[in-house]
Design brief:
alpha+beta, BirA Bifunctional Protein, domain 2, 12 helices, 10 strands, 41% helix
């Protein structure tokens, strides 16, 4: 009888399957109520006394072997099912990994930030919901100033004070000057809002990058040199011209044009046959602005400049309609696939 039990132990240890039904059948055969183990336990009373100890130990070995085998087979089946559920068929070809698209606005903004970072400008940010002081008054635009009409503003609250969506990122520069002492060298990228009709050339939401440099003995020549460096790095063109203009917060003020050239039909179209393209505004910071920010204009001077990111992106990528930046059309965005 003991030899018969040992033969079953060998059968249990050699048993292998990857079918759940066969594992269950094996369990019932050995560990079920009418299984082989219970039959051997029933025979225990008929075993001679001198063999009972060895007989009992052998039965327990068979029981332990059967339980361990069932548990091992079930774990193997469970791991196999989990692997199939998570990974599917591991022998099938891999699926193509689609690269994401980086938005052209983000691409151009990052390029501009990198260029100015190389010459010591840091990045400053501020709230998109502003008060009248930081958006207008501190920038030499007191209440009822006619230049306020240059920017149609989205007002959120008018009492007890004017709260609005910022019309330019110059408000960030005001906050930066209030919190930092010269020398100051910072650029302020961000989203701005103006109550304008949406068309192919204008939008009520757009992005700006404005720069500010304040130190002792800063001159207009420093401004021109900085802008020449920027245009050379971004466009590969260093020929610029500065045309007199007017901005309330700079004096003197200028519009900056780059010479785009007239090599192609597209050049003629976008420059209207002149070869020149306007890209930004600039000027020397008005002394009143410095006073409003608690900076002594007798000791310090500075320059500021600002450009629309959409305008720059339209030039770099030859995009004819500004609305395309905001429509989330995948046919448009997929043209800017990123490898990063």
């Amino acid at each position: 009888m003991i030899d018969k039990i040992k033969a079953h132990i060998a059968d249990v240890e050699n048993f292998q399957t990857d079918v759940a039904e066969e594992v269950e059948k094996f369990r019932i055969e050995y560990l079920g109520k009418k299984g082989i183990l219970n039959a051997f336990f029933a025979e225990f009373k008929n075993v001679p006394n001198e063999q009972k100890k060895e007989f009992g130990q052998t039965i327990n070995e068979l029981k332990t072997a059967a339980q361990n085998k069932v548990e091992a087979l079930k774990n193997a089946l469970s791991d196999k099912q989990e692997e199939k559920g998570v990974y599917g068929d591991l022998s099938r070809p891999g699926e193509e990994i689609n690269l994401g698209s980086r938005h052209p606005i983000s691409m151009v903004k990052n390029q501009i930030i990198d260029i100015f970072s190389n010459i010591g400008f840091n990045v400053s940010e501020g709230p998109e919901i502003e008060d009248d002081w930081h958006n207008f008054t501190a920038l030499n635009l007191p209440e009822y100033h006619p230049a306020r009409d240059m920017q149609d503003t989205f007002f959120i609250q008018t009492n007890p004070e004017d709260i609005l969506l910022r019309t330019h990122t110059s408000s960030v520069q005001v906050r930066y000057m209030e919190e930092n002492k010269p020398p100051i060298r910072t650029i302020s990228p961000g989203r701005v809002f103006r109550n304008e009709a949406i068309s192919a050339r204008s939008h009520c939401i757009f992005h700006q990058v404005e720069g500010l440099y304040i130190d002792k003995d800063v001159s207009f020549a420093d401004l021109k040199q900085t802008l020449q460096y920027f245009t050379q790095q971004l466009f590969g063109k260093s020929k610029i011209r500065l045309r007199p203009s007017y901005f309330p917060f700079t004096e003197p003020s200028a519009e900056v044009d780059i010479y785009w050239g007239l090599k192609t039909e597209t050049d003629y179209r976008i420059t209207k046959g002149t070869g020149w393209l306007e890209i930004m505004g600039c000027g020397m910071v008005d002394p009143n602005v410095l006073k409003n920010c608690n900076i002594n204009p007798e000791d310090y001077s500075g320059f500021a400049f600002g450009m629309g990111i959409e305008r720059i992106a339209m030039l770099l990528y030859q995009i004819s309609d500004i609305r395309m930046f905001y429509e989330n059309d995948l046919r448009f965005l997929n043209q800017f696939k990123s490898v990063i």
